[in-house]
Amino acid sequence: MEIIWLSYLPLYIQLCEEKSISATAQRLGCSNAHVSRQLVKLENLLNKQLIHRTTRQFVVTQDGLEFYHQAKALMEHAEAIENKLFNNNVASGRVKISASSSFGAGRLSSLLAEFNTLYPRIEIELLFTEQMSDLVQESFDIAVYLTDTPPEGLVGHKMKAVTCAPYALDTYIEQHGIINHPAELNRYQHIIYKSEILNLDNWTFVKDESNQEYEHTSKITQFNNRESCNIKLDGSFKTNLIPSMVEAMLAGIGVATLADFALDKLTKSERNRVVRLLPQWRTTAILPLYILYPRREHLPKRTQLVIEFLKNRLKA
């Protein structure tokens, strides 16, 4: 039995993912008119409107969205069969990745650039958001997010929890003095991370095997037989971008509590001027880092390669 609409699937999948006739035509190396004609033929074959398009809008209909998911799964299954039968070791195609802007902008970009040099035929499309995208509805292959509640229905690989430490410019510390206990952090101005879903102004600092006693107004408790201190920071500079926190810290306006990856892009001279405060103390973890992807029977080889690469690099 001949299924005549099968040949239209690559173009239709591209249309749904690009959400643009012109972008699809450019990617496939054909004219806008050809893409439009092919879409009309496919809709006539299926007797359904798949995409509602006007001069200003391009909206996939409910029927079109359902057909897209089935078509995507079918093409991925076909690709898996081809790889198995013909032992195809050359992976190609696009992998669309959604990532936390607070983590991804600091470390993920450089890792995926490294991956791209290893596998130049695999195209990486990386989009940063703070709110986790719906991977299925928005056609993402992989997500990399800081979260303690990964969505149900996704496969999740937990990498590690992110911990932070307070950093400041050497000249700022010279002006305001060194401190020896987290309770003294209120002597400084703080650069605070704040987004729609995360406000990092409360921290718990833990000191290993501490026998020293302090008289401070902040709350001091025991944390697994180690001294801990709960601190609420205050500051006049708040931002939802880690690089912005780093720039403000380098400008000398205050202390930024950052994960180590936030300092990766500093020059050697900048890094030499950055002071880590309270080195005998550590903060408790904020959120674990997850690699997430939709649960599918057959993952394309390109997606598998990206996942394994990130798992190895992020564990290290």
Automatic annotation (TrEMBL):
Record SUPFAM superfamilies: Periplasmic binding protein-like II (SSF53850), Winged helix' DNA-binding domain (SSF46785)
Domain spans labelled HTH lysR-type: 1-61
Residue spans crossing the bilayer: none
Protein's UniProt keywords contain Transcription regulation: yes
Alphabetical UniProt keywords: DNA-binding, Transcription, Transcription regulation
Assigned protein family: Belongs to the LysR transcriptional regulatory family.
Name this protein carries in UniProt: LysR family transcriptional regulator
